[in-house]
Design a protein that fits this description.
Radius of gyration: 21 Å
Keywords: Signal
CATH topology of the largest domain: Jelly Rolls
Number of domains: 2
CATH architecture of the largest domain: Sandwich
Organism: Colletotrichum siamense (Anthracnose fungus)
Shape: globular
Helix content: 10-25%
Order of helices and strands: HHHEEHEEEHHEEEEEEEEEEEE
Largest sheet: 8 strands, antiparallel
Distance between the termini: 57 Å
InterPro entries: GLEYA_adhesin_domain
Number of strands: 17
Pfam families: GLEYA
Protein name: Cell agglutination protein pfl4
């Protein structure tokens, strides 16, 4: 007999399958052949990564969990006991190009319009238990970020950030960022931003560009540490990049980082997938450094990223295990801290 949580997943997938989403605007925008930005291959790659997700089912009395890899067409036991459970929540971030999809669930469904892309959904009943490891209360939550605004009339802006023919992996980041004092700094629990008006100044987490500036030729750099509550494999995904996003993971996020050795590089207008990188936490005490570079040359700008459990993580876990996305921390205090404080932004050595 299927568990209530498993039945809820199957009913949910049946509703998705019956929506005929491939024939509406959302489905055509995601899987159609009539658009080139992003390319069909890039959209397919994004979808393949996105549909391998967890669906969290809120806790009910005496919860049970079935780990499964269902297809969209499932038969259910109509004679089984009925139990009302809330529909699961699809996790992840909908990319900006999928504007015709009203929400992340619609995008998740539209992704399955691609041939060969099927969902890998692991229902996890939310919790009566606790995560196996948490960060010290003294650790500072959220990634640190620094905002740089490059003079729009400068050669750096025009010849690099606004030059659509220059590939991101050739950017001279030392020239762009090293030694610069940021116009503002702050913390972000989720690195994500979108702004359509190119003539307005940026306002990110309360940090604004200087008076008279715009979002053109802006650079945001995030840095910090990732910490998981369970050891195993996780996926760092760039959901949106307008114009350029580069990501470094591990030791090179702290030193030696340059445009040519980024783990993920996504540039608008180029087939720059994959949009993700897998990372592995050996222990629950591990803090993995990360760094995210975003730049916008002209037009509106946007970026988004997230870190999610790999679907294999939950296969051998006991019932009721809470699977959380890794948390972001800027640093933790202490002489022997596994997540030491970062140097001043202007003192960092790029490349």
């Amino acid at each position: 007999m299927k568990s209530p949580a498993s039945l809820s997943i199957f009913l949910f997938l049946s509703r998705v399958a019956s929506a005929a989403i491939c024939n509406n605007n959302c489905g055509r925008q995601v899987a159609g052949t009539g658009r080139n930005d992003p390319s069909l291959a890039s959209r397919s790659s994004l979808c393949a990564a996105f549909v391998s997700i967890y669906a969290t089912v809120p806790a009910i009395p005496q919860p049970t969990v079935t780990l499964s890899v269902p297809s969209l067409v499932q038969k259910r036991n109509v004679h089984g006991p009925r139990q009302e459970t809330p529909a699961p929540t699809v996790l992840g971030t909908k990319p900006a190009y999928a504007s015709s999809c009203p929400d992340v669930a619609a995008y998740w469904s539209a992704c399955q319009c691609f041939d060969g892309i099927k969902p890998t959904t692991i229902p996890v009943t939310a919790p009566t238990g606790v995560a196996s490891s948490t960060a010290s209360a003294s650790c500072t939550p959220g990634a640190e970020f620094a905002l740089h605004v490059i003079e729009e009339r400068s050669t750096l802006c025009r010849n690099t950030l606004q030059n659509a023919d220059v590939r991101a992996n050739t950017y001279d980041l030392k020239n762009l960022v090293q030694g610069r004092v940021p116009v503002g700094i702050g913390h972000a629990e989720v690195p994500r931003y979108s702004q359509n008006d190119e003539n307005q100044l940026i306002n990110y987490r309360g940090v604004q560009g200087p008076a008279g500036s715009t979002i053109k030729c802006n650079i945001l750099v995030h840095r910090g540490y990732l910490k998981a509550s369970l050891s195993g494999s996780y996926e760092f995904i760039v959901g949106e990049a307008d114009d350029v996003v580069m990501v470094w993971l591990g030791d090179k996020a702290k030193s030696g980082f340059n445009a040519n050795n980024a783990d993920v590089t996504v540039q608008k207008g180029f087939r720059s997938y994959p949009y993700s990188e897998f990372i592995y936490f050996e222990t629950v005490e591990e803090y993995i450094p990360f760094r995210i570079f975003w730049s916008n040359g002209r037009g509106g700008g946007a970026f988004s990223s997230g870190v999610y459990p790999d679907y294999t993580l939950g296969l051998d876990l006991p019932e009721g295990t809470v699977i959380e996305d890794p948390k972001l921390y800027s640093s933790c205090p202490g002489d022997a801290s596994p997540a030491p404080a970062w140097p001043a932004w202007q003192d960092e050595v790029w490349g």
